[in-house]
Amino acid sequence: MFETVLIANRGEIALRVLRACKELGVRTAVVYSAADADSAAVRLADQAVRIGPASSRRSYLNAAAIVEAARQVGAQAVHPGYGFLSEDADFAEICADNGLTFIGPPPAVMAALADKSSARALMSRAGLPLPAGSVAPVATAAAAAEVADAVGYPVIVKAAAGGGGRGMTVVRHPAELARAYARTRAAAQAAFGDDRVYVERYLTEARHVEVQVLCDSHGNGVHLGTRDCSVQRRHQKLVEEAPAPALSAATLDGIAETALRGALEVGFVGAGTLEFLVDAEERFHFLEINCRIQVEHPVTEMVTGIDLVHEQLHIAAGVPLRWRQEEIRLHGVAVECRVNTEDPERDFAPTPGRLERFTPPGGPFTRVDTHASAGYLVGPWYDSLLAKVIVWAPDRELALNRLERALEEFDIAGPGVHTTIPFVRRVLDDAAFRKGRYTTGLVDRLLAPPSPLPSTAPSPLPSPTPAQRSTTTPTPRAAPAAEPDVSNRRTR
Amino acid sequence: MDGQNGRPDGDARLDGDGRPAAQTAVAADGRDDVRPDGRHPADGHGETDADGEEVLVGLRRQARHLLAELPGPVRRIRLCSGTTVLEVQWHPDEAAGRSPVPPTPPPAGATPPAGAAVPGPPIALIRPPVPGRATVRAPIVGTFYRAPEPGAGPFVAVGDLVRPGQPVAIVEAMKLMNEVTADRAGRVVAILVGDGQPVEYDQPLVELDPA
Q1: Given this model, what pLDDT does residue A205 score?
Q2: Least confident of A17-31, A438-452, B116-130
């Protein structure tokens, strides 16, 4: 095992990795930006190195600064968390060149899988079913139209290098295609420096189901079951659960086994996630593979009892997997929701500010992963994830009740600060969600005016007031998001 | 997890070149009972603030004299007006090479958790800047060098006048030399970091008395 690991991230995931390292007797070092000098991770780490100003481009995305910090602390390995440099093959290679173990897949595998187009080609060769569409990027608007005509509308135009919910456009009519094609290419060039796009059939009422895999460097791998992440806004997840509900055991097993086969065939090493869309007939289609730990990993930990960050560290240190597939057992149901500082009434716009109150819930089988505390300043520089509430129960109904109870306890307040808690509570109240029969269209449906249900009648939008208590903020209807598609992609 | 910042391979790397550092400890009041940590045994002596300031001025003057006479690059200076101690460590060889591996890192700028051993001050820091005085700060995390190349004269020395934009040091990060320039005119009062030492982003490097 490593003696010292450098944690190249911030927020709750830095704390999560730090805890795993400490539990394994590994010295911890964190990097931090000038904005995070007072963070919990900095306080708890054995060492911390300030690597840059608040701007993530000059701190958490600054590969040179992070490698310098790793050298300064004598780290043997770098854990990138999620986001930032976690799926940057160049960074992984720079680490290797400097004698550092990047905790993730080999750089060449990452490079091949980071590109959506080449990942599709690789997985197609490995026998995974893809959504209908172009495997290779389409070079002209005419070629895009040809693909769209062949697979049928609606289609989605996606940047090969896309991520973070950016670089994709849903096209519902042939007349819109040429413009959408040009716009997506331009956006992809601006955001990712790569204007290649491809076209695939867009499934409007699909489930987003993903599979957690662990693969070691000796060719062994296991899958840890499925997660359903269909509750998304702006292609970003809000509620996740394990296992995916209301699917047949044959479908769940089929997705999981297919995913593991794909991961092993492309030489994946580490903790990874293969994402699929599942249609109403329970046919599944491979979307992409994520080469990192994910925000929603705790639900898998709760149903398997396996600490995924521990496993990442073991795998990176060259330890063979400690389980065979038949030893993996899934128990009960786990549900996670993200508590973001966002205003669901203003298209989930971030609402940074100082938290005057922050009292997370407690109770049995209730886990809160957070870096925040009372007095914490949610700055404008980074993402809006404030906490994750994860609950476990023997069955789904009790798990949902437990999550409702936990969210009711969660007290967060600060001037101008809103959270996603009221919106998540609406999701938990939704009848289709309760039955486990929901799709990526759920959030749009909840946001669509007007509601015929008197029990959730709209109330006027309250203007933010000092110390507004977000847990009790009414959640009136809002106009639908400008971009109605909420599938096929999310960040973490 | 002991909260310390030592490296597993020991202090030999502190020099970067594998050689031991020369060391001396000078008690400014002539006493010779300086402990290894540079402090006098407790003797109940007290000082007024004015006395302390005067002693500090004297210590600074002594430090400047010592620096001018040292046979090799400075490794560490310790000034301590409360117990009147001046301690200087230096590399014995003038031609001491650059460190291929940076030495012991500075610890976090944050308070350690309760119960953890309290890390010492960053090894890179010769002394903290005087509050309110102008400083030139590190533009990036890396290794601090006073001279453009090994064996060359330093960019600036204590007492030099600098103008805005003038290079005063370099910070090496990932084999790239990042020039550090003064953002104002002033006289160099102190070099706050030892040559070849690791520095964090925004760490004060050079103290200036604005001209």
Answers
A1: 83
A2: B116-130
Residues facing residue A78 across a β-bridge: A6, A102
B105 and A29: CB-CB below 8 Å? yes
> Closest Cα of chain A to B199: distance in Å?
9
B108, B119, B141: residue with CB nearest A42: B108
Selected catalytic residue, list A292, A338, A367, A396: A292
Beta carbons of B13 and B103 less than 8 angstroms apart: yes
Q: Which residue has better confidence, B114 or A453?
A: A453
The string of pLDDT tens digits covering residues B166-182 is 999 999 988 889 999 99
pLDDT value at position A167? Answer: 83
- For chain A, give the secondary structure using H, E and C: CCCEEEECCCHHHHHHHHHHHHHCCCEEEEEEEHHHCCCHHHHHCCEEEEEECCCHHHCCCCHHHHHHHHHHHCCCEEECCCCCCCCCHHHHHHHHHCCCEECCCCHHHHHHHHCHHHHHHHHHHCCCCCCCECCCCCCCHHHHHHHHHHHCCCEEEEEEEEECCEEEEEECCHHHHHHHHHHHHHHHHHHHCCCCEEEEECCCCCEEEEEEEEECCCCCEEEEEEEEEEEEECCEEEEEEECCCCCCHHHHHHHHHHHHHHHHHCCCCEEEEEEEEECCCCCEEEEEEECCCCCCHHHHHHHHCCCHHHHHHHHHCCCCCCCCHHHCCCCCEEEEEEEECEEHHHCCEECCEECCEEECCCCCCEEEEECCCCCCEECCCCCCEEEEEEEEECCHHHHHHHHHHHHHHCEEECCCCCCCHHHHHHHHHCHHHHHCCCCCCHHHHHHCCCCCCHHHCCCCCCCCCCCCEHHHCCCCCCCCCCCCCCCCCCCC
| 8 Å CB contact of A50 and B200 | yes
- A50 vs B2, B109, B143: nearest CB: B109
Mean pLDDT of the region B67-77:
60
pTM for the model stands at 0.75
* Neighboring chain A residues of B108 at a CB cutoff of 8 Å: 30, 32, 42-43, 45, 47-49
| Whether residue A292 lies in the annotated active site | yes
Mutation site, A47, A56, A58, A62, interface B, largest B CB count within 10 A: A47
- Quick one: tokens of A45? 């780490």
**Burial readout A16-35 (b: 16 or more C-beta within 10 A, e: otherwise):** bbbbbbeebebbbbbbbbbb
Q: Is the pLDDT of residue A475 over 70?
A: no
Is a pLDDT exceeding 80 seen at residue B8? no
pLDDT (tens digit per residue) in B119-149? 333 456 778 888 888 999 999 999 999 999 8
| Chain A nearest CA to B130, separation (Å) | 20
Other CB atoms within 10 Å distance of the CB of residue B178: 15
Please name the residue of chain B whose CA is at the shortest distance from the CA of residue A72. Answer: B105
Instruction: Kindly tell me the sign of the dihedral angle through the C-alpha atoms of B170, B174, B176, B181.
Output: negative
How many angstroms separate the Cα of A24 from the Cα of each of A17, A312, A353?
11, 12, 35
β-sheet bridge partners, residue B144: B171, B197
Confidence of residue A227 (pLDDT cuts 50, 70, 90): very high
